[in-house]
């Protein structure tokens, strides 16, 4: 009886093998074919640096000399506000001058120019749809340039489209104030350097002819 059951099981297993193994083999071949059709993208450790170098060159060609030097030396760009009532629906500025700080991959910060009172953070993203690794993150300088172009091109539209938060939501207010202090020192240094160049040129004018 046992031998008969064992023989029956072996026959059944052989029949199932004839059915299952070809199917498994066919599935394996299909999977290999799909993998061969999809190109393997090798990670290039220098790609990020090259992309950022190109982005910095493009940024430099678009912004003015002061804005480029500011970004190069401080890591952000200041853009002056263009409306008398200030940005967004923050209650207005009463006609006081205001400006924005543009950081790569961080919110745009609005502030009053004289008092450095922070008005708000404006979060907006510019994804990179062209990158082959599935990343939506632009190179730093491309992100800064996209914000600069949108803000200088249509301030109202950018501020309306952004997610507005009170100061401190994502950026440390003390760090922003330190950046504003750094900006003030940087501007004073540039003014002293410009004055020194002017004095030197007046004291040593080029000889005519």
What does this structure look like?
- The chain is α+β, with helices and mostly antiparallel strands and 209 residues long.
- It folds into two domains: 1-35; 51-199, no CATH class.
- Helix content is 55%, strand content 11%.
- It is built from six helices and five strands, in the order αααββββααβα.
- It has helices spanning 2-37, 47-62, 65-74, 140-153, 155-161, 173-203, and strands spanning 77-80, 98-102, 108-112, 118-123, 163-165.
- The chain has a five-stranded antiparallel β-sheet, with helices on both faces.
- Helix 2 (47-62) packs parallel to helix 4 and helix 4 packs across helix 5.
- The longest helix has 36 residues, at 2-37.
- It is globular, with a radius of gyration of 31 Å.
- The model is unreliable at 9-13 (pLDDT under 50).
Shape: globular
Number of strands: 5
Structurally, the number of domains stands at 2
Return residue spans where pLDDT drops below 50 for at least 5 consecutive residues. Answer: 9-13
- Structural category is alpha+beta
**Helix and strand pattern:** HHHEEEEHHEH
Separation, N- and C-terminal Cα atoms = 122 Å
- Percent range of helical residues: 40-55%
Strand composition percent? 5-15%
* Widest sheet: strand ordering: 1-2-3-4-5
Q: Can you give the mean pLDDT?
A: 81
What is the gyration radius calculated from CA atoms?
Answer: 31 Å
- Helix count equals 6
Instruction: Sketch the major β-sheet.
Output: 5 strands, antiparallel
């Amino acid at each position: 009886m046992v031998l008969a059951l064992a023989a029956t099981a072996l026959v059944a297993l052989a029949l199932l093998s004839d059915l299952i193994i070809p199917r498994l083999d066919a599935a394996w071949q299909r999977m290999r074919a799909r993998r061969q059709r999809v190109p393997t993208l090798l990670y290039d450790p220098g790609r990020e640096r090259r992309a950022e170098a190109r982005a910095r060159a493009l940024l430099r060609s678009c912004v003015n000399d002061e804005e480029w030097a500011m970004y190069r030396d401080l890591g952000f760009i200041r853009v002056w506000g263009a409306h008398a009532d200030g940005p967004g629906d923050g209650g207005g500025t009463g006609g006081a001058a205001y400006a924005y700080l543009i950081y790569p991959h961080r919110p745009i910060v609005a502030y009053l120019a004289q008092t450095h009172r922070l008005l708000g953070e404006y979060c907006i993203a510019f994804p990179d749809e062209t990158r082959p690794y599935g990343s939506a993150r632009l190179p730093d300088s491309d992100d800064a340039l996209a914000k600069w172009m949108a803000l200088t091109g249509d301030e109202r539209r950018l501020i309306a489209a952004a997610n507005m938060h009170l100061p401190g939501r994502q950026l440390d207010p003390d760090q922003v104030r330190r950046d504003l202090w750094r900006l003030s020192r940087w501007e004073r240094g540039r003014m002293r350097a410009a004055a020194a160049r002017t004095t030197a040129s007046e004291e040593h004018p080029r000889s005519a002819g």
